[in-house]
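Dear colleagues,

As part of the handover before I leave the project, I'm documenting each prediction I ran so the next person doesn't have to rerun anything. This entry is a single chain, and its sequence is reproduced below.
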Amino acid sequence: MNLNKLKILSGDASFRKFYRHKNNIVVLSKKDTKKNLLIYDAVNKIFIKNKIRAPKLIKENYKLKYIQIEDFGNTTVYQKLKKNNKSKIIYYKKIIKLLNTIQKIKTKRIKTFLGSTYKVPKYSKKILLDEAKLFLDWYIPKKIKKKNQTLLKKKLILVLKSLINKIKFDNKTFVHRDFHVSNLMIKNKKICIIDSQDAIFGNMAYDLASLIDDVRLKTTTRFKQDIFEEYIKAKKKMNIENFKNDFEILSVLRNLKIIGIFTRLSIRDNKNNYLKLIPYAWKLIEQRTEKNKKFIELKTILDKYFSKKKRNKYEN
């Protein structure tokens, strides 16, 4: 197959490239091939096994580092919502229903197209900390004077560890890990899920935090609360206070991670279009930490080192 003759589609934050070939999508990944092709398809198989719409594998050519998968078209839920804001609550109710289905998945192992067995990993405190440290490793060096970086990083690591230790729920729930409206597509009026290679067994609040505090789509505080309440309606036996605690902590940790990732994408991969989302990621962190006792130390540190001007400014 000559990929140079195919139409390239807009990419994502991974090392993958996407092409449309007849009625299929060709996914090429010369870096992180195992995760972006083999594991991606394995997780899709888990979704399909559990009656959730995800791209089916059509053909694989792992040696040449590409696979062909089902084409869900071009319409994401994000695009629908940008065009028609009035339908937002309708779509989010459908998404919450989908999320509840995802969280019932118990499949831990699946055969890959190479015949090996893929085991879905489990979140750990170390993984959460390592992800949040992307903020320290990439964003801080870009924004803070070198002489102040070491002390700031030490302070933040202590606070982040403390927050992670305050999380209540165990890592028993299937988590997509990048669950937001840009990764949900509409095909034949049904919601389909993509970009699933990072799925993990983790905290049940994580995907909801990804959905509600999504850097790509601005929503009001009232709307965020409505969606949160829509989710907990079906959770009769759940400790709501513990869940809210985890939701808030995971949202803040995730958006710190996102700021780090978007900065890394610019510096390392020359992908600068994500930088414009950083000010809203800061806004989401502010909303969750404001007047919230468990975030007092974190808020104090962030307010000291990162002025409003720094938070609202983005550049290559």
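Residues 200 and 312 are 33 Å apart (CA to CA). The chain has one domain: 75-312.

All the best with the project,
I.
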